Recover the amino acids of this structure.
């Protein structure tokens, strides 16, 4: 059938479609435009109403985030040694296989504490460095297990109101000094500045790391929270760098090819078990040409086996397996004497290039990032150093202290990294530190020892403090650009961390915390309240926090800090910018009114 005008029924007039389509598109575009204006204006008005504007001398306005004032309650006194991610109260949830219960297991957000961790009864401000290396107040670390169980090894002893540290250890009951003297004879590189950074796995009370400080070597002392009770807390109370950690199923939070030396003194890590993954992890974090030092089983088993509750045949077998594994990882025996054996990691890639595909352990494939070290599972494969970095090995890198200001080769790994940016960063932090010392006269004296830079880039803050009686833990966010290899190449120490979670340390272990734009960078992920409560947990009473932040966040930080019993004052930056401020805060000493 057809219409009376002759067109078929059901066929739309094509001449009418085009103008209708145009009108529809125009109307849609106009509605989006009007809606966009309305929404942006609505957001703008909401933004203005929810914030306070600060007028600068030039008449410009700087927005400031406002939060509700809150007074945080005290935690129960049973939480005085609370370590949220390594909490013994939560161990039963995790298996004992490979000691996974000692790894980081952080509580979910709904279980996080919103209270202030109290100090022990009788807590006193810590003894000042360097006296603190040899003694600490008993009431600050009131744990007797080591004193009782290790008394014959002279780890520590209690006298009156103090713990004394004679410098003993399981493999050096007569003193750590004599032990390290022998080690230096075996490794001359410990004397000439070649070796600067070290890691001590299973550190006890960190006497080895404490002794090395006088020899120009900076050590990360590593131990889990276990039945030894507060090894890491003792170390930090003494003013010696330390962190909670265990080699179990995940990589340690350090980049590859970073430490100049690794040490195990009867740390009882089963190096040859589980496909050799523990020794493979030491290989990963050790710099090419770096040294691995082992004392204790199975070293010197011919003389020692009777005291190890084993047989000489078992110890001989263990030693042969260890030597075979080390050879397969391109380690070579460097030196040995009495209870100490030293192996050296291959200084170049010649050995790795000769490994066949049938070799076990195999080389890691390209899918495994060498520096990925935040909740990264251990794998039984060899991380081969990148051959393009020929000046990062121990035999090629500058010796200490020249390496502190020499531009690291690995700065080229990330976008924007260059010699000029490195020098600018160095110069900037020298000015900032000079300014900080005017704001906090205690900085640069023995009143401040343990310091953390919570979000470093190149380690410039720490580098500017190397002539002061401090050590600095440089933290690089696991979500930020990985600049931690540069920190280690400078001869400094640090760790990866995600500030949405608690840090791997005990309460009251740092004298000063420093951050530079941390909330600007992480506020979209991490709630400010929890970051500040974590800062309060790890900061010592009377300790300082230097918060360098966008003016937008400063007032909100000060409000929360007041609820944590901190005293804060706002200061100008060196250049007097209104867009950035410095908040100087000091934690007050208070005692718990709650009892467990």
């Amino acid at each position: 059938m057809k219409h009376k005008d002759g067109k078929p029924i059901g066929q739309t007039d094509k001449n009418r479609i085009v103008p209708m389509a145009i009108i529809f598109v125009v109307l849609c575009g106009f509605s989006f435009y009007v809606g966009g204006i309305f929404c942006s204006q609505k957001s703008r008005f909401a933004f203005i109403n929810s914030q306070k504007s600060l007028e600068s001398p030039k008449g410009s306005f700087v927005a400031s985030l406002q939060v509700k004032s809150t007074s945080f309650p005290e935690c129960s006194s049973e939480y005085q040694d609370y370590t949220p991610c390594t909490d013994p109260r939560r161990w039963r949830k995790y298996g004992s296989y490979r000691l996974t219960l000692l790894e980081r297991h952080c509580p979910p957000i709904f279980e996080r504490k919103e209270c202030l961790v109290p100090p022990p009864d009788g807590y006193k401000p810590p003894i000042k460095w360097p006296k603190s290396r040899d003694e600490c107040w008993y009431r600050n670390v009131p744990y007797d297990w080591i004193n009782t169980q290790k008394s014959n090894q002279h780890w520590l002893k209690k006298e009156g109101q103090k713990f004394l540290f004679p410098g003993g250890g399981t493999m050096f009951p007569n003193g750590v000094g004599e032990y390290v003297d022998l080690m230096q004879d075996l490794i001359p590189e410990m004397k000439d500045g070649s070796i600067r950074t070290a890691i001590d796995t299973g550190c006890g009370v960190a006497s080895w790391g404490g002794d090395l400080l006088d020899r120009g070597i900076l050590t990360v002392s590593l131990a889990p929270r276990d039945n030894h009770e507060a090894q890491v807390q003792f170390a930090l109370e003494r003013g010696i760098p330390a962190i909670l950690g265990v080699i179990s199923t995940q990589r340690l939070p350090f980049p590859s090819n970073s430490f100049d030396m690794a040490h195990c003194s009867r740390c009882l890590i089963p190096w040859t078990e589980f496909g050799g993954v523990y020794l493979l992890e030491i290989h990963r974090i050790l710099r090419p040409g770096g040294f691995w030092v082992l004392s204790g089983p199975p070293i010197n088993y011919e003389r020692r086996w009777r005291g190890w509750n084993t047989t000489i045949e078992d110890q001989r077998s263990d030693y042969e397996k260890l030597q075979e594994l080390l050879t397969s990882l391109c380690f070579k025996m460097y030196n040995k004497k009495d209870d100490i054996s030293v192996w050296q990691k291959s200084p170049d890639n010649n050995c790795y290039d000769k490994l066949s595909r049938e070799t076990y352990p195999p080389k890691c494939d390209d899918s495994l990032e060498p520096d990925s070290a935040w909740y990264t599972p251990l794998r039984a494969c060899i991380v081969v150093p990148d051959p393009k970095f020929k000046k990062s090995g121990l035999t090629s890198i500058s010796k200490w202290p020249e390496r502190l200001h020499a531009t690291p080769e690995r700065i080229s790994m990330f976008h924007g990294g260059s010699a000029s940016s490195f020098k600018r960063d160095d110069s900037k932090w020298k000015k900032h530190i000079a300014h900080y010392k005017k704001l906090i006269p205690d900085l640069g004296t023995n009143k401040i020892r343990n310091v953390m830079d919570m979000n470093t880039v190149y380690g410039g803050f720490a580098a500017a403090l190397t002539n002061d009686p401090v050590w600095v833990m440089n933290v690089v966010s696991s979500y930020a650009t990985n600049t931690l290899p540069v920190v280690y190449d400078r001869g400094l120490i640090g760790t990866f961390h995600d500030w949405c979670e608690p840090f791997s340390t005990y309460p009251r272990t740092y004298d000063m915390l420093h951050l530079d734009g941390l909330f600007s960078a992480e506020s979209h992920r991490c709630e400010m309240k929890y970051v500040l409560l974590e800062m309060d947990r790890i900061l010592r009473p009377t300790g300082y926090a230097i918060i360098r932040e966008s003016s937008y966040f400063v007032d909100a930080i000060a409000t929360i800090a007041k609820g944590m019993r901190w005293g804060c004052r706002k200061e100008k930056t060196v250049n007097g910018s209104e867009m950035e401020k410095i908040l100087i805060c000091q934690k007050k000493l208070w005692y718990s009114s709650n009892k467990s």
User: Anything to note?
Assistant: The chain has two domains: 131-392, 402-587. The two ends are 94 Å apart (CA to CA). The domain at 402-587 is CATH 3.40.50.150 (Rossmann fold). The first strand starts at residue 51 and ends at 55.
